[in-house]
Design a protein that fits this description.
Blueprint lengths: L2 E7 L2 H13 L4 E4 L1 H6 L8 E6 L3 H13 L1
Antiparallel strand pairs: 1-3, 2-3
């Protein structure tokens, strides 16, 4: 089991909303680089990365795609 990047976001808020959507479906997720993003003003210079376990990546991608289309 290893972590893989599922998506990148311009702000921590967007990444956290995606993380919460996944966790509500039982998929553990974490965000990385949120502090670096905040340091540079959250303007997207450093993306906030959403990470999931490699075994969950396909299901997680489907959940995010459904969430974005809603």
């Amino acid at each position: 089991m290893s972590l893989v990047e599922l998506a990148r976001f311009g702000t921590r808020v967007e990444a956290d909303l995606a993380r919460l959507a996944l966790e509500s479906e039982g998929i553990p997720a974490m965000i990385m680089d949120a502090e670096a993003n905040s340091f540079f003003g959250g303007g997207g210079l450093i993306a906030v990365r959403l990470m999931v376990l490699d075994e969950d990546v396909e299901e997680a991608a489907e959940i995010l795609a459904e969430d974005r289309s809603a």
